Each structure stands twice: as structure tokens, then as C-alpha cells.
From TrEMBL:
One of its GO terms (biological process) is protein N-linked glycosylation via asparagine. The lineage of its organism: Eukaryota, Metazoa, Chordata, Craniata, Vertebrata. Accessory component of the STT3B-containing form of the oligosaccharyltransferase (OST) complex. OST exists in two different complex forms which contain common core subunits RPN1, RPN2, OST48, OST4, DAD1 and TMEM258, either STT3A or STT3B as catalytic subunits, and form-specific accessory subunits. OST can form stable complexes with the Sec61 complex or with both the Sec61 and TRAP complexes. The association of TUSC3 or MAGT1 with the STT3B-containing complex seems to be mutually exclusvice. Belongs to the OST3/OST6 family. GO terms for molecular function: magnesium ion transmembrane transporter activity. Residues 1-41 form the signal peptide. InterPro entries: OligosaccharylTrfase_OST3/OST6 (IPR021149), Thioredoxin-like_sf (IPR036249). This is Tumor suppressor candidate 3 isoform X2. It is a multi-pass membrane protein. The gene is TUSC3. Pathway: Protein modification; protein glycosylation. Keywords: Membrane, Signal, Transmembrane, Transmembrane helix.
Length: 348
């Protein structure tokens, strides 16, 4: 029976093939061609991505920050495919732009990029680039960007979100703050290595040498060490420096001032109560010193035993200093803390 059943199975199989619909062959052929095309497209994307990464790695081997114009920006940042994060500094470094903040931010950005390039964790998942306004005006227009410097993170997939723009006005542009922001956006932790700076050590050594030499020359007469006025001046200088925000500047590294790129107006006072400019701390220092001078003059007029007319003049000068500069200080305070109700003279 096995021998007799074999031909019947062959005849049955032949009948199945004979009755297969003729329209299925073009469909199978089309499906096969579609699979081949999709596979070729995927391979093409992989090759394009490999070429882009290879080019970026070559640029990174030469410079830690590579400059981009409009074409490079669209090719390596905007156009897919992309499996890497890109940190871009939008700046205006040309001398005619007179952007001192851009130069200061560029120095910190260079320190950060060098720290990443020479790090043992360096890989092809993060790159640093720069777009200068005079080299990529079309990029600024495309992103509706009207201020510089600006730091942005372009993720491997999707468009940048609001948090992908670094809050420079509030945080400052110190390399350490940039590294922390990058770690939050990319999970890449960069340890910042600053080049050695011996200027502070040299200045301290010169100061100690100067003081030591002065003490040696005056070794027979050291009464000036007990001078109350001298120590009072030193103490006031330290107080003015601390109350004006110099320590905050040292920690946060804010810009000296801000220049509006549209109208060229320079702002020396930051509009937020959470930040300040370096120039703002200098202004506050001068105002506090002027107010203190006025108080000293008022005290001198009240305690001295000189001519009455002279004492009256000193009193009026001291009062004028206190009222004028304290009113100026209050106006700055009101501009940063909106809604503050108190003022002496209205400078707004």
C-alpha cells in the first residue's frame, strides 16, 4: 500500500500547484522587491550615519570644538540619521560685534570641550561645535535666535526641548555649570580640568613680600600696625566686596554685562533677583562705599568740636550722599524685586 499511495500523493500535490491562483506570483514578487528596497534603504542610512560619525570624529581629533556654517549645521545636526548628541554654542566672536561676553563664554566652553576630548570616557556619543553669527546667519534666522552667546543641546532623536537650551542668564557660563547641564541632558559626566593658573599664587607671593619688606624697613617703628583707621579701611573693603556679590561672581561666573544684539543697548543690571552681572556688583560696591562715606561724614559732624559752619557743611554733604546713593540703591533693588514698595528718590 505504501508503494501504491506514493503516486497518488504526487498527483495530489500536482493538483494543488495547478490550482494556485495566478495573481499571487506578481504579489510575491512585489513583496520580495519591497523587502529588498527596505533593506537597501536601511543599509544606506547606516552607511550615511557611519560617514557622519567618522567625519565628526576626524574633526574632533583635530579640534575639540569644530565650527559650522549653515550647510554643515543642516547636514550633521538637523538632518537624520543621528545617534549622537551635539552641544552647539551660538556666538558672535568677530571683533566688529564687540561681544565681550562671547569671548568669556568661549573660554569656558573651550575648557569644557578640552576636558571631554582628553577624558578617558571620550566617545562618539557627544560632540562640541560652534556657530558664529557671521558664518551662519541663516542658522540664527532658522532658529529665531536673537541673542548670543547661547548654548543648545541637540539630542540624538527628536527636536530640542526647552530644557535643551542652557539658562545662561540665571546660572552663568562657567565650565562646571555647563558640565552639570550636559550631564542632566545626556547622562554624560565630564570632569572639568582647568589649565593651571599661577597668577593668584604670584600675586599672593608679591603681597607677602611687599608686607614683609615694609615691616622690615619699619622694624624700629611699628606703631602703624595699631592704627585703627587703617584696619577700619581694610575691614570696610572686605565688607564691600562680600556684600556686593563678589563671591557669587566667583562661584557662578556670570557675564560682565549683556548687550542686546538688536539695538546694541548694554545692560549692567540683571532684571532677575536670581542672577546678577559682574558690572552690577561693581555698581553696588560703589554705592555702598558712597553711603558709608556719608555716614562717616555725619558722624564726624556730630562728634567733632571744630567750627560750627564747617560742621554744618560736612553734615549737609554727608546727608546728601546718604539720601542720593541710598535712593539709587533702592531703585536697583526695586528693578530686581518687582513690587517692592519703598523708595526715597524715584530714579525710574
Amino acid at each position: 500500500m505504501g508503494a501504491k499511495g506514493a503516486p497518488s500523493r504526487r498527483r495530489q500535490t500536482g493538483r494543488r500547484l495547478r490550482y494556485l491562483p495566478t495573481g499571487s506570483f506578481p504579489f510575491l514578487l512585489l513583496l520580495l522587491l519591497l523587502c529588498i528596497q527596505l533593506g537597501g534603504g536601511q543599509k544606506k542610512k547606516e552607511n550615511l550615519l557611519a560617514e557622519k560619525v567618522e567625519q565628526l570624529m576626524e574633526w574632533s581629533s583635530r579640534r575639540s570644538i569644530f565650527r559650522m556654517n549653515g550647510d554643515k549645521f543642516r547636514k550633521f545636526i538637523k538632518a537624520p540619521p543621528r545617534n549622537y548628541s551635539m552641544i552647539v554654542m551660538f556666538t558672535a566672536l568677530q571683533p566688529q560685534r564687540q561681544c565681550s561676553v562671547c569671548r568669556q563664554a568661549n573660554e569656558e566652553y573651550q575648557i569644557l570641550a578640552n576636558s571631554w576630548r582628553y577624558s578617558s570616557a571620550f566617545c562618539n556619543k557627544l560632540f562640541f561645535s560652534m556657530v558664529d553669527y557671521d558664518e551662519g546667519t541663516d542658522v540664527f534666522q532658522q532658529l529665531n535666535m536673537n541673542s548670543a552667546p547661547t548654548f543648545m543641546h541637540f539630542p540624538p532623536k527628536g527636536r530640542p526641548k526647552r530644557a535643551d537650551t542652557f539658562d545662561l542668564q540665571r546660572i552663568g557660563f562657567a565650565a562646571e555649570q555647563l558640565a552639570k547641564w550636559i550631564a542632566d541632558r545626556t547622562d554624560v559626566h565630564i570632569r572639568v580640568f582647568r589649565p593651571p593658573n599661577y597668577s593668584g599664587t604670584i600675586a599672593l607671593a608679591l603681597l607677602i613680600s611687599l608686607v614683609g619688606g615694609l615691616l622690615y624697613l619699619r622694624r624700629n617703628n611699628l606703631e602703624f600696625i595699631y592704627n585703627k583707621t587703617g584696619w577700619a579701611m581694610v575691614s570696610l573693603c572686605i565688607v564691600f566686596a562680600m556684600t556686593s556679590g563678589q563671591m557669587w561672581n566667583h562661584i557662578r561666573g556670570p557675564p560682565y554685562a549683556h548687550k542686546n544684539p538688536h539695538n546694541g543697548q548694554v545692560s549692567y543690571i540683571h532684571g532677575s533677583s536670581q542672577a546678577q552681572f559682574v558690572a552690577e556688583s561693581h555698581i553696588i560696591l560703589v554705592l555702598n562705599a558712597a553711603i558709608t562715606m556719608g555716614m562717616v561724614l555725619l558722624n564726624e559732624a556730630a562728634t567733632s568740636k571744630g567750627d560750627v559752619g564747617k560742621r554744618r557743611i560736612i553734615c549737609l554733604v554727608g546727608l546728601g550722599l546718604v539720601v542720593f546713593f541710598f535712593s539709587f540703591l533702592l531703585s536697583i533693588f526695586r528693578s530686581k524685586y518687582h513690587g517692592y514698595p519703598y523708595s526715597d528718590l524715584d530714579f525710574e
